[in-house]
Write a structure and sequence with these properties.
Distance between the termini: 49 Å
Structural class: alpha+beta
Number of strands: 9
Organism: Methanosarcina barkeri 3
Number of helices: 6
Low-confidence stretches: none
CATH superfamily of the largest domain: Winged helix-like DNA-binding domain superfamily/Winged helix DNA-binding domain
Protein name: Transcriptional regulator, ArsR family
CATH architecture of the largest domain: Orthogonal Bundle
CATH topology of the largest domain: Arc Repressor Mutant, subunit A
GO molecular function, one term: DNA-binding transcription factor activity
Length: 171
């Protein structure tokens, strides 16, 4: 994301632009439809879209003479990652991720079959995954051992609906 902090903070400092992002989270929209939904004129919507484009939070997709605006979710997520809590800790070689995690958070685990799953971190229940140095591991938290310095990203998955299918049965 090359939008720069100044562009980014300008982009999210407006309730109208936040509303545009919220509406675009439902899917790509034509600028006139977006303006109508939000209750602003097309020229005003276009100015707000330009600011969001400069911050690289939205992109314009051209289909002939039609321009559709879409949200760049990866850039929104990258922006939010800057605000993740960072904790430093030192452990012995061979320490498991679960042992390390317990040093910085209240962790609740459940054994499911032969695997240990973290079901709560600091009281927040949910489904958790992790990456070590930007890569997913096929090991559970009690199996993964540290043998060198690493950066772990501990992530709680939250329900995000990419597509919702409303299925009706013909009668």
């Amino acid at each position: 994301m090359n939008g720069g902090r100044e562009n980014l903070f300008k982009a999210i400092s407006s309730d109208t632009r936040l509303s545009i992002l919220e509406h675009l989270s439902e899917g790509d929209k034509h600028i006139s439809g977006l303006a109508r939904e939000i209750g602003i004129s097309v020229p005003v919507a276009a100015r707000h879209i330009k600011i969001l484009e400069k911050a690289e939070l939205v992109e314009r997709k051209k289909f002939g003479n039609t321009h559709m605006i879409g949200i760049k979710l990866n850039n929104v997520y990258s922006f939010l990652d800057h605000f993740a809590e960072n904790r430093r800790l030192e452990v012995e070689q061979g320490t498991t991720l679960l042992e390390a995690l317990k040093n910085v958070a209240a962790v609740e685990v459940k054994k499911m079959g032969n695997r240990v799953k973290v079901v709560s971190t600091d009281g927040e229940e949910g489904f958790y995954i992790y990456e070590v140095d930007g890569k997913f591991s096929d090991k559970t938290v009690d199996e993964y051992e540290f043998h060198e310095d690493a950066v772990v990203e501990w992530k709680k998955l939250v329900p995000i609906t990419k597509k919702r299918l409303l299925v009706s049965i013909r009668r």
